[in-house]
Design brief:
Length: about 550
């Protein structure tokens, strides 16, 4: 005898592994609308996972909603979608917000009749009640407006007629039935919404368990999310073979693990000592080609150490030949679950491009770890503020900056920019650089570094924005404990609130995802200033 299993419908919080399925769902739910990038959905989840829900039917994602906490002033003021959602990423979420704001709701059109939308709204209401929030504010589409515009005197009149039952709108009528009440019309809320003529109904649901006459100030709990960070300021030294290089690296991994560090970061191009045992002088292109031959062995050893020592390793960077034959400068991140992730350097320095023909990458995304999402900016990339902002929009709270600089001026460019990234993004930035020299190895003639763990500049953090820093040009391991919960406090209640206070009515960052894989930035060109046979400079 056989039995047929009943299909199961469940609602749970969204997780980063749901991103692709959510993207596909939204394409089905809103054909003809611009879809989210995976980075945007990742940001929605990472910025406030408790407010993002998925509905699964027989294990398949059939519903999704995104929500954030905002202040009363923000929720009830006139606004558009791009402004209040930080261009869809949800970065304006505030842990001190008294209201939930719902900015995405998608249901698979093939699964109508399962009350998926109702179930998702019930989850939102339950969340508002659990957090003692005043209620939920949304901007509801009015898809029936375009068809009915000859019968009404503008969107306000249309909304009035829907409320009084003279007209029916598939979205607004549902919201009214669900306990929402209208506040008015948000004009030009979402210009892409042609059936609504770009407008939306401003709606509110009030939490019956919160006294509307009492307005207690919401405070962010000063909790503890402690993460121990270690940065290795590594001495360049000649090695006899690959195994000796690995032993030198493993020593510092072992020490950091003994101190129960969650992360250790190594410098940019810290694999260059592998050229020290070459028996003949190599041209720059021969040298870089030789280094790329170690990629497989190198990443395998990183994964082994991360797993054995139970630590997340940001493996500096290593030149890698891609599938199309180009060479890129890539940071390999080995997590303590044994997985390895890659982050390309987006901007090669002029010397990297000229001497080594290094090409710039085209992808920049957070890496999910057991301590939350992180980002990596390799040296010169830290000098471009758009990149750090993209990582933080996706939820990164720690950004690692492996660097390789030959002069104090080059180092200071990276240092000052890294400090700026920590302040403007209200995140932690961890720097790691090379010291010493390797005769006959290009880019290792001289090195200058002072590695550091940097913080925002506000009351919960280090007095000068420096959690820890190493002595200049000395091989050492520098560690510090940071509290990720302090970032939530700073973003919600800090003296300044850089992320929340961005003017999305004036500017935002758009990432061009139309590039085909490996449509890298051009390299070559005239000999860089200084003309030395060296790719470094930060």
């Amino acid at each position: 005898m056989t039995t047929t299993g009943r299909k199961r419908l469940e609602i749970r919080n969204a997780v980063p592994s749901d991103v692709r399925a959510i993207q596909n769902l939204i394409a089905r739910a809103y054909p003809g609308f611009p879809n989210y990038s995976q980075a945007t959905i990742r940001g929605q989840i990472n910025n406030f996972q408790a407010g993002c829900f998925v509905a699964l039917y027989d294990g398949r994602v059939v519903g999704y909603c995104a929500t954030m906490r905002v202040s009363r002033e923000m929720a009830f003021a006139s606004h558009d979608w791009e402004e209040i959602t930080a261009n869809g990423f949800g970065t304006r979420h505030s842990a001190a917000g008294e209201w939930l704001y719902g900015y995405e709701m998608a249901v698979d059109p093939r699964q109508r009749g399962l009350r998926i939308g109702q179930r998702l709204y019930d989850e939102r209401k339950e969340l508002a009640e659990q957090l003692d929030l005043h209620g939920i504010v949304i901007a509801g589409r009015i898809p029936g407006f375009q068809r009915a515009r000859r019968k009404v005197d503008g969107p306000e009149d249309y909304l009035d007629k829907v409320v009084t039952g003279k007209l029916r709108d598939p979205v607004i009528s549902f919201q009214l039935k669900n306990g929402f009440e209208p506040l008015g019309i948000l004009k030009n809320y979402l210009p892409e919404d042609k059936p609504s003529s770009g407008h939306a109904a401003h709606l509110v649901w009030r939490n019956p368990y919160v006294n509307p006459d009492e307005a207690p100030e919401m405070r962010v709990p000063r909790g503890v999310e402690s993460v121990r960070l270690a940065t290795c300021q590594l001495q360049a030294r000649a090695v006899e073979n690959f195994d000796e290089f690995v032993r030198n690296v493993e020593y510092f991994v072992d020490v950091a693990a003994d101190y129960r560090s969650d992360f250790i970061v190594f410098p940019e191009l810290f694999t260059l000592p592998l050229l020290s045992y070459e028996t003949k002088k190599l041209t720059p292109m021969e040298a870089i080609d030789k280094l790329t031959s170690y990629t497989g062995r190198f990443t395998k050893e990183l994964a082994r150490m991360a797993l054995e020592y139970n630590i997340n390793i940001i493996g500096g960077s290593h030149p890698t030949r891609t599938d199309d034959g180009d060479i890129q400068n890539i940071a390999y991140v080995a997590l303590r679950d044994g997985s390895v992730h890659a982050q390309e350097k987006i901007h090669p320095t002029p010397n990297e491009a000229f001497w080594w023909n290094i090409k710039g990458g085209d992808s920049l995304d957070v890496i999910q770890t057991d301590c939350g999402p992180i980002g990596v900016l390799i040296c010169y990339d830290s000098e471009f503020p758009e990149l750090a902002r993209r990582l933080v929009d996706q939820g990164a709270r720690i950004i690692f900056v492996p660097f390789c600089t030959d002069s104090r001026a080059g180092y200071l460019r990276v240092r000052y920019c890294s400090q700026a990234r920590a302040i403007e993004n209200q995140c932690f930035v961890v720097m790691s650089g090379n010291v010493g020299n390797l005769p006959n190895v290009d880019n290792m003639d001289i090195q200058y570094a002072q590695s550091a763990i940097l913080t925002p500049c506000d009351l919960p953090f280090a007095r000068d924005g420096i959690a820890a820093e190493s002595t200049e040009n000395v091989e050492t391991l520098t560690m510090a404990d940071v509290n990720l919960a302090d970032l939530s406090w700073a973003r919600a209640e800090g003296t300044v609130r850089n992320l929340r206070d961005r003017r999305f009515d004036l500017y935002h960052i758009e990432w061009d995802s139309s590039l085909a894989p490996h449509d890298h930035a051009p390299s070559g060109g005239p000999v860089p200033a200084g003309g030395h046979n060296s790719p470094g400079g930060g």
